Amino acid sequence: MFNRRISFLLVLSFCFLFGMATKAEVENVKEEAESEITTTESDKGYKIEVSGDSDKQGETKEIKFVSPEGKVVKTLEKYWYKRNVSEAKGKWITEVDHVAGVAENKNAVLLWKGKYSTDYDPRGVEGPHGKKHEYTVELLNKNGETAFKKDFKAYPHGELTMPFWETGISEDGSTFFVFYEDSLGLFHIEIYNATGKKLAEAEHSDKFYGGMRMQISPDGKIFGAKIYKKGAGKYLFFLDVEIGETKMVKAEGEVNGKKWSVSHSLIEDKKIHLSGGWHYIDRAQSAVTSFGKLPKDLSTLFGDKK
């Protein structure tokens, strides 16, 4: 801790001496330094252990929070989706527990609990259920303590394949997102850091695809998803977490009778990997671009059409 405080003072001294720091920049340095001291001291020596090495649906695992002395201070069941349905006075109450993700470097666990009611037994019935879903999102750090906890409400309006609620955590555990549909049918994306501070947010009216098509980059600097614009087809939607800017580009198209389409995955430093390309080319096609250099026409990244 002493060394980090010395480093912080040296950074401030350098900035003031050379006139290179604005007040906002100084506050940024101070906030980051203090945040680092707090989180590293509270987590020091603790670790997260996860049994098993796959994420098959229905598979039961254990997540253990282990102290520096090797004592297990907290244990969670790692489940894909755990649901309990109970009936009372003509209403069915459904409660859901879900461990949404464990950071790749095992420094944080994201989980949520959900609850909704229906006038019928929802078991075995496909499609979104209930008019309002209540969720509590929680982020646990390495010592099993709660670093973030917040309640959300989501309202399903669309088809089963289009999500109204989703969460995800970056591989480095620094950032996580909460996605939900509100009562008016608008979709919200909120990005938080590991201390629970909101970093960015956006809202959109078009339907989003879920699963791997909605993700946050390994370093938490960019959020990406595939959306469907009614009457216009599929698009890719991106949110730059650091500056709060959004971009949307078409994910499919046709030029002179030649069709193309792309899917995306996110890399560090705001880079975007695209796969797909021209349908008439009988080989795998891919390209890498970045949020700042994202072209309006993604087909131009896959060479000239014949």
Mean pLDDT, all residues: 82
Specify the structural class. mainly beta
Strand order of the largest sheet: 4-5-6-7-8
Overall morphology: globular
Low-confidence blocks of residues: 1-39
Q: Radius of gyration, rounded?
A: 22 Å
- Summed up, the helix count is 2
| Number of structurally distinct domains | 2
Number of strands: 21
Give the oligomeric state of the chains in this entry, treating copies of one chain as homo and distinct chains as hetero. Answer: single chain
Question: Quick summary of this structure?
Answer:
The protein has helices at residues 2-17, 23-43; strands spanning 47-50, 61-66, 72-78, 82-88, 91-102, 108-118, 133-141, 146-154, 165-169, 175-181, 187-193, 198-204, 207-208, 214-216, 222-229, 233-240, 246-250, 252-255, 258-266, 271-278, 286-290. The protein is mainly beta.
Please give a structural write-up:
This protein is mainly β. Strand 4 and strand 5 form a beta hairpin. It folds into two domains: 44 residues; 222 residues, no CATH class. It is built from two helices and 21 strands. 12% of the residues lie in helices and 47% in strands. The longest helix is centred in the N-terminal third of the chain and has 21 residues.
Topology:
Elements: H1 2-17, H2 23-43, E1 47-50, E2 61-66, E3 72-78, E4 82-88, E5 91-102, E6 108-118, E7 133-141, E8 146-154, E9 165-169, E10 175-181, E11 187-193, E12 198-204, E13 207-208, E14 214-216, E15 222-229, E16 233-240, E17 246-250, E18 252-255, E19 258-266, E20 271-278, E21 286-290
Antiparallel strand pairs: 1-2, 2-3, 4-5, 5-6, 6-7, 7-8, 9-10, 10-11, 11-12, 13-15, 14-15, 15-16, 16-17, 18-19, 19-20, 20-21
Helix pairs in contact: 1-2
